[in-house]
């Protein structure tokens, strides 16, 4: 510590004191607001979260919540509606290190390239069976439906049936849906809707998808 304290540190700087006082008041006001909204949130139930938008961060956010739930020993089910050629790190980790997490992926019947609508629908339908079973089982605290929105967008799954299963899930169960779009009915149903905005993406600057970051 230098021998000579600044005026503000000595408390003899009237401007510094004023600033500190203003900061304290602003923080008190902020705390009162936060406390009031915490007190107002009195409903206790599972939450339906939609992570949408064109930016990067939807699935990885969902898997962040999987970690949160696991930290409390909760039962987690994950259903992925699009299976990439490359397994992502979180899939590898769940498969190899977390046998307590039930993970289902859409079979090889589905790819963007098959252009075989009936095969895609059959694959979507088979994958949905896992999701609908989990959504009806109060044993699951958290169900992740990764990339589900595309199944609705392409009408591979019946929207009304999907929305009904989400709406009628056990009251203590939380559900996370990821994927671009999703439609207004889904957005209305979900309790929390976050849109990840694409401001910039490394790939567009020619940077290769990175292990541990992009997959
Ligand atoms: P992540 O899994 O990284 O959270 P995401 O779920 O938001 O991404 P997806 O559309 O599922 O996005 O695509 C996953 C892959 O595509 C990731 O490798 C991600 O970096 C990449 N990606 C996501 N958004 C963009 C974008 N706007 N431009 C280019 N690549 C993207
Ligand atoms: Mg994703």
From TrEMBL:
UniProt entry tagged with the keyword Cytoplasm: yes
Biological pathway: Cofactor biosynthesis; adenosylcobalamin biosynthesis; adenosylcobalamin from cob(II)yrinate a,c-diamide: step 2/7
Protein purpose: Required for both de novo synthesis of the corrin ring for the assimilation of exogenous corrinoids. Participates in the adenosylation of a variety of incomplete and complete corrinoids.
An individual GO BP term: porphyrin-containing compound biosynthetic process
Compositionally biased region (Basic and acidic residues): 1-20
Entry's Gene Ontology molecular function annotations: ATP binding; corrinoid adenosyltransferase activity
Annotated family: Belongs to the Cob(I)alamin adenosyltransferase family.
Name of this chain's protein: Corrinoid adenosyltransferase
Organism phylogeny: Bacteria, Pseudomonadati, Pseudomonadota, Gammaproteobacteria, Cellvibrionales
Bias kind Basic residues: ranges: 21-31
Main location: cytoplasm
Region feature (Disordered): 1-37
Pfam family, one: CobA_CobO_BtuR
Catalytic activity: 2 cob(II)alamin + reduced [electron-transfer flavoprotein] + 2 ATP = 2 adenosylcob(III)alamin + 2 triphosphate + oxidized [electron-transfer flavoprotein] + 3 H(+); 2 cob(II)yrinate a,c diamide + reduced [electron-transfer flavoprotein] + 2 ATP = 2 adenosylcob(III)yrinate a,c-diamide + 2 triphosphate + oxidized [electron-transfer flavoprotein] + 3 H(+)
Keyword vocabulary terms for this entry: ATP-binding, Cobalamin biosynthesis, Cytoplasm, Nucleotide-binding, Porphyrin biosynthesis, Transferase
Subcellular location: Cytoplasm
Keyword Ion transport: no
GO cellular component assignments: cytoplasm
Assigned EC number: 2.5.1.17
Chain segments annotated as transmembrane: none
Organism of provenance: Cellvibrio japonicus (strain Ueda107)
């Amino acid at each position: 510590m230098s021998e000579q304290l600044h005026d503000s540190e000595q408390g003899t700087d009237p401007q510094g004191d004023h600033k500190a006082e203003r900061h304290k008041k602003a923080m008190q006001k902020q705390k009162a607001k936060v406390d009031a909204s915490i007190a107002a949130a009195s409903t206790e139930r599972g939450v339906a979260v939609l992570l949408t938008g064109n930016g990067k961060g939807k699935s990885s956010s969902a898997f962040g919540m999987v970690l949160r739930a696991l930290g409390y020993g909760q039962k987690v089910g994950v259903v992925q509606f699009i299976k990439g050629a490359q397994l992502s790190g979180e899939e590898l980790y769940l498969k190899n290190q977390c046998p307590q997490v039930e993970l289902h992926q859409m079979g090889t019947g589905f790819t963007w390239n098959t252009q075989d609508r009936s095969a895609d629908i059959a694959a979507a339908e088979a994958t949905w069976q896992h999701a609908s079973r989990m959504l009806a089982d109060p044993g699951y605290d958290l169900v992740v439906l990764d990339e589900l929105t595309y199944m609705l967008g392409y009408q591979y799954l019946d929207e009304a049936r999907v929305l009904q299963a989400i709406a009628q899930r056990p009251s203590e169960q939380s559900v996370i849906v990821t994927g671009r779009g999703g439609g207004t009915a889904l957005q209305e149903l979900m309790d929390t809707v976050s849109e990840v905005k694409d401001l910039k993406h490394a790939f567009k600057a020619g940077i290769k998808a990175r292990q541990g970051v992009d997959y």
